[in-house]
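FORM 7B: Structural annotation worksheet

SECTION A. Query
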Amino acid sequence: MYNQMPPKVEYYITEYGITANKIIDVMCSWGRHNIKIQQQQGEEVKLLENN
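SECTION B. Predicted structure
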């Protein structure tokens, strides 16, 4: 923590936290696959923009 206003804090992910990447990768893969299926069925898929 830094002695300044507004307060500033730096966070770091632990090695254990990094293990969640496997789960997130599977969910992202599922999402990409699901989008392709919806598009093949003629549905319009709107994606959120990254800010």
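SECTION C. Observations
The chain is about 45% helix and 0% strand. The radius of gyration is 18 Å.

SECTION D. Sign-off
Analyst initials: ____
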